Amino acid sequence: MTLLTPKAVLEQHRVVICVGTGGIGKTTVSAAMALAAARAGRRTLVLTIDPARRLADALGIDALDNEPQRVSLPGPQSESLALHAMMLDPKRTFDGLIARFAPSTEVRRQVLENPIYQHVSGALSGSGEYAAMEKVLEMAESDDFDLVVVDTPPAQHVLEFLDSPRRLVEFLDSRLVKLLVHPAMAAGRFGAKLFQRPVQMVLQLIERVTGVGFLEDLSAFLMAIDDMSDGFKQRADRIRETLAGPDTAFILIAGPGQEPSRNARMFLDHLSEARARLRGIVVNRMHLWPGETPPSPELLNSTVPQADIDALAHALDDPAAARAAVSAASEMANQAHRDFVHTRILREHAEARRCFFSEIEEAPHDIHDLQTLSAIADALTVEDEVANR
Ligand SMILES: Nc1ncnc2c1ncn2[C@@H]1O[C@H](COP(=O)(O)OP(=O)(O)O)[C@@H](O)[C@H]1O
Ligand SMILES: [Mg+2]
């Protein structure tokens, strides 16, 4: 049976979206996968969220300016390789959208400075979900890149993220907006007397309480938004098409413990509910047994025969060191065994879906330099060679 490999997935798609709960290394793995793709010759952008400070420095994105930055890669042929990184700034992406759809600079200024816009855009882009999707589309459609690797914002439910374009459209079509937009537009165009009385009373009350020029703001905002909402809706549709299309792969990043693998299974359910194309599962921070063969039952059960321990003590000429070595090895074996058991379901799931399954070993320290990222990228591709044999 041929399984997909990470290398094939990175070669065959234009968008790779990494999903999973926060804290298990999604940002790290996204960056490592992007690096692997760049080293295979693809012009790659990693669109990242909230990297640790030193990783941001290593990627050259310490300045948050919402534009792709070229990562200077170490190594001999690095000149010819193109890896770019970009840190997402949801609020500015949203403002960029307004700028794109606003019919004039005057409308643009009115909307951006409008307190209601500021409130609504804060609410919509607060989680970064819609903004991330918007940027993915913009970058995926750009001729500058062959591949965009996306590190998704931590969402409780992956559907929240996949659904964000639809939710925006729903918001624009919502009864609240409809209720407010028509009278408010009427007020703007024909004067306040056409206002339905209850709405007017509510708005006046809000205005009195907040001291904000609510009616004026509202009508200016909603009129501008109404003109733009077709643009938004078309974008939202395009985002949905891109996500559901054959050029987009979803990769689940999971952790090896009991709780992380439970969370991962929840993500798998949500992904299939959303009909997302899952192409691979990466378990990060695995404890792997270094031997060629699995650890022996004696080591796992801490029942290594005394004769063996004695022989080791003799060879080392140090009985205490021999006992310590055996106990450390037994602990490692058990940790690796636990991780193996907890991730079994994920492994089976990947096999059943013909996805790749990769493990990344727990490093002895945090990962915030390109060298360590390279080692992870290597690990992902070395596995390919094994899988391809
Ligand atoms: N395989 C690993 N071994 C050791 N530390 C890791 C590994 N993967 C990630 N880390 C560290 O774990 C922390 C969280 O990783 P990060 O990628 O920011 O997670 P997330 O994006 O899922 O919140 C970081 O400090 C990172 O350096
Ligand atoms: Mg992260």
Provide a short characterization of the protein structure:
The chain is α/β, with parallel strands linked by helices. The protein is 59% helix and 11% strand.
Topology:
Elements (H helix, E strand, L loop, with lengths): L5 H7 L2 E5 L6 H14 L4 E5 L4 H7 L9 E2 L12 E5 L2 H12 L3 H9 L1 H11 L3 H12 L6 E5 L6 H5 L1 H9 L2 H16 L6 H14 L3 H31 L3 E7 L3 H16 L4 E9 L10 H4 L5 H11 L2 H24 L1 H9 L3 E6 L8 H19 L1
Parallel strand pairs: 1-5, 1-6, 2-4, 2-5, 6-7, 7-8
Antiparallel strand pairs: 3-4
Helix pairs in contact: 1-2, 2-18, 4-5, 4-7, 5-12, 7-12, 9-12, 10-12, 15-16
Bound molecules: adenosine-5'-diphosphate and magnesium ion.
Mean pLDDT across all residues, rounded? 79
CATH architecture of the largest domain: 3-Layer(aba) Sandwich
Rg value:
27 Å
Q: How many strand units?
A: 8
Bound compounds, please? adenosine-5'-diphosphate, magnesium ion
Order of helices and strands: HEHEHEEHHHHEHHHHHEHEHHHHEH
- Major beta sheet summary: 8 strands, mixed
Strand arrangement within the widest β-sheet reads 3-4-2-5-1-6-7-8
General shape: elongated
CA distance, first residue to last residue = 12 Å
The CATH superfamily of the largest domain appears as P-loop containing nucleotide triphosphate hydrolases
Helix content: 55-70%
**Name of the top-level CATH class of the largest domain:** Alpha Beta
Instruction: Report the uncertain regions.
Output: 184-195, 385-389
- Number of helical runs? 18
Fraction in beta strands = 5-15%
Could you name the CATH topology of the largest domain? Rossmann fold
Report the structural category: alpha/beta
Q: How many discrete structural domains?
A: 2
